[in-house]
Design goal:
Chain lengths: ~375, ~375
């Protein structure tokens, strides 16, 4: 009996995972982490109003969610001063990126990103047969001019940039991004991932250019809104770009509880302000802990801080391993020279205390 | 400025939706439905233990879900007497079908299904450029022999069958499905959609043939478990077939609240038994209501009943419209001659009363 054959493209792909979850490490270690600071989750949690809305929705979960995410889309449109036709809600930015790549990237189509930027985007590009062209970071920042130049050189279908950046936490002001948008080559679509934008300084997000068909922006409830496990992201773009999602998206993919939670979270401005304060304090604390250990923290516009361990990637990987061995879940950049850093998510004061205790011990094991 | 170009495949696809949600009709009508009986949702709701688990998980939703769905996968493996490597959890059967089609169906690859079977599967096949070959229903049942013959004729990559069937509610006994599995042609993969299996008579589900690489089965928490809005489905298959999902799936697509709810629902056998009883009673009630109006209900192994309106599709569509006008959300088969029926989901006694009141009025408008 002949087995069914995968497509040629699927055969060529490895079984891979952009990120291994912390639960897998916990199972391997036989004990839970004492601080979960590796996935840029928001340990301060979602708005109490969002929690209440999700708890209420739990008993209504026998119903499919509205496939149009109508109420949430309306609220997001009002929030951003655009039309509902400019918003596509999906099961997290990962899902939206996957659909976007599927729509625009065929076999051997060129795509441009930074070397060391978000691996899940790269996973989707590979998964649809695209060819990734990577440009290096410049002084630990994504480099808009190089991204644009490379896109022009290779005729990129998509150009990916995160602002603020993950994994470095660095950012560009709106005027730099505006210039990048203006420079997008003919036929390219700029994917501006703003997952961390709510935690960046005022003046980081460019104004909406909502009728620009060469730009799509990605936002999420996973970071500032503290709802990573609810899977709610959204894309903002020109109506024609947004409508293309309806050709292939999984209309009934959104969770009903998640929609209810996101709607409540969006309305709770006080909680978001509270979170922004907590995160700013945690960033300062991480910076201080780094300094106390003779290390340098990079400035961050996100809910994490990259700490320069002062040597090469091998050294930082050993620091990382020594932290994980102490029950501190952290991750780090993949690519040199950014891999001289470890990346610490903002946590509660108690979690920051545990990190402060673990870091010098980790460094002690290096000598 | 040149706009970014969709792939040739994406350009060829219409912006379409397999099912319009009831919320869209409610918005158009300016009022909510008084009975939601159109999407085969389980109005009896999820297990109270599942609701409690989801409510507890709501405050932990700042964490991403375990991308391996480890605990749920273990529980499902135990439940089915297979290994965890034989289970893939995903965001509903729709998502799993999409990934499966992506893995196996390339441009112009042939796929076989029944004419009038689940449209979301067809949507995925079209979305990846596959070519659908459809065989007719036989006496309102899917026709395994014809499906197999057609698959052999066209060299199908995938063969889709739902048992019990949607939209007709009819079913085949396990021996018929076992024969179909045995007859799967070389190189074909049989997709056995068992979304409604928990509501079918004993003897409907064939035994696991877990090492058979030409078979994959789909199950869900959306129907008997009453968790449609949580988006939890799973595939059961040979380890090599299941592992292929890891090449392209969205690892962090599952919701954390959903995982917790599904785990609790699976353990609550008493609630499932209660639901099975409620659904059997509702099926009988729908059958009786049909008879009271001079119509014939088809036997059903699901949580819905197809009612033969006794004339053609145009007649049934008018009955459907007259029910919807009275606030009863129902749907119907798409294809003749099955479209002589309307499809009524099982509901609470109060919802059944509303249907019983509305149906004769709907039929009155026909004369």
């Amino acid at each position: 009996m002949t087995k069914p054959a995968l497509t040629a493209l699927a055969r060529s792909l490895p079984a891979s995972v952009p990120f291994v979850g912390p639960e897998a490490a916990e199972r391997a270690n036989g004990k839970p982490f004492i601080a979960r600071l590796g996935a840029n989750e928001n340990t301060f949690g979602p708005s109490p109003r969002a929690i209440a809305a999700m708890q209420k929705a739990a008993s209504e979960v026998w119903m499919y969610a509205d496939p149009e995410s109508h109420d949430l889309r309306i609220a997001l449109a009002v929030h951003h001063g655009v039309a509902p036709e400019n918003i596509m809600v999906g099961e997290g930015i990962d899902t939206l990126l996957g659909v976007l790549v599927r729509l625009y990237v065929g076999q051997n189509d060129p795509v441009v990103t930074s070397d060391g930027a978000y691996p899940t985007f790269n996973y989707h590009v590979a998964g649809f047969g695209g060819v990734l062209h990577k440009v290096p970071y410049l002084d630990d920042h994504e480099d808009p001019a190089s991204l644009i130049a490379k896109a022009r050189e290779v005729g990129a279908k998509l150009i990916y940039i995160a602002n603020p950046d993950n994994p470095m936490g660095t950012w560009h002001n709106a005027d730099v991004i505006d210039q990048m948008i203006a420079d997008v080559p003919d036929g390219s679509l700029l994917v501006l991932d703003e997952a961390y934008i709510e935690m960046a300084p005022a003046g980081t997000a460019p104004a909406m250019q909502i009728d620009n068909p060469n730009l799509i922006r990605m936002r999420t409830f996973s970071k500032a809104h503290g709802m990573a496990g609810a899977r709610v992201g959204y894309a903002i773009g020109a109506a024609e770009v947004i409508d293309a999602f309806n050709k292939v998206r999984n209309h009934f993919g959104m969770g009903r509880i998640s929609q209810a939670g996101a709607l409540a979270a969006l309305a709770d401005h006080d909680w978001l302000a509270h979170i922004q304060t907590q995160i700013a304090q945690a960033r300062d604390r991480i910076t201080q802990i780094a300094a106390d250990n003779g290390l340098t923290a990079l400035p961050s516009a996100t809910n994490f801080v990259a700490i320069d361990c002062g040597q090469d990637g091998n050294f930082a990987r050993r620091v990382l391993a020594a932290l994980i061995a102490q029950g501190i879940f952290v991750r780090m950049p993949f690519v040199a020279p950014q891999d001289r850093c470890i990346r610490i998510s903002c946590g509660t004061p108690a979690e920051m205390d545990r990190f402060a205790e673990a870091l010098p011990k980790a460094l002690d094991t290096m000598s």
